[in-house]
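Service request form, structural biology core

Requester: graduate student, group of Dr. S.
Request type: structure prediction, single chain
Budget code: on file
Notes: please return the result as structure tokens.

Sequence provided:
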Amino acid sequence: MAVALSTPQVDELGSVDRALREWQQDALPIQLHPGDLGWFWRFGPEALAAALRVWRSNGEIVACGLLDGPDVFRMTVAPHLWRDEEVAYRVVTDLSRPECGVLPAGKVAVEAPDGSLVKERLPGAGWSASDAWTPLRRDLSAPVEEAGVRVAVVADAQVSEFTAVHRAAWGSSRFTDHLWHTMAAGLPYADAGCLLAYDDAGVPVAGVTVWSAGHGRPGLLEPLGVHPEHRLRGYGRGVCLAAAAHLRELGSSSATVCTDRASAVATYRAAGYQQLPVRRDMARAGAPQSG
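Core staff response, request fulfilled:
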């Protein structure tokens, strides 16, 4: 098959979102999710489109990825083509050659799903295993236990509280009310929600955004944070449980998340999330030779 790389236009974001939704399966390793696009949407649809790369064959999207920063590319492949030689060759070639317009020269990293031929072929093109991430999944076939903390679904009245908790939790001033409203106006947020946990005094202490990929498909937590002044009090576990319950209400088959923090792994496990095998990014120290 002929496989071609392109950067989508804003009016093509819907087709990318639909493809990623259709590709989500509990039987597969955790992969790029429409919620990842939804979280990036806070910078606006034009910025998201510019950060996406898609590979098509005969008009069908066969692979896609997101530049999560200038030197990190998070990507996946249509499940029925995970072992396809032509798709793997084209994607690995385009990832490895800066002139193809996916990643620049120099030190860069790729997140590709375990089990895909793309990931298996990257070492032969000069890539090596790098940062480790721990994926976790909670099955949602049964009701989720009570969170043990008061949780509200964020509406306009809670936006400022939610963004303040996020900024404190992540030590960043970037997530403003304006960015929240931009994110909430995006296509993926139609099946998503932000949850805000409060302590007994009514102080907001933790927040999470959950993304559904549609009925019977895995949902995603991205991101989750606990205010630093309220950690180690069970709020993290509580909001993890609330996230799972909300995803179940949205029809998700499971709640998934991926983290590189040991403390976060412990919190998710305490909320009934099953720890899955560690996966590693693939990194390239410098630009390979062309040709």
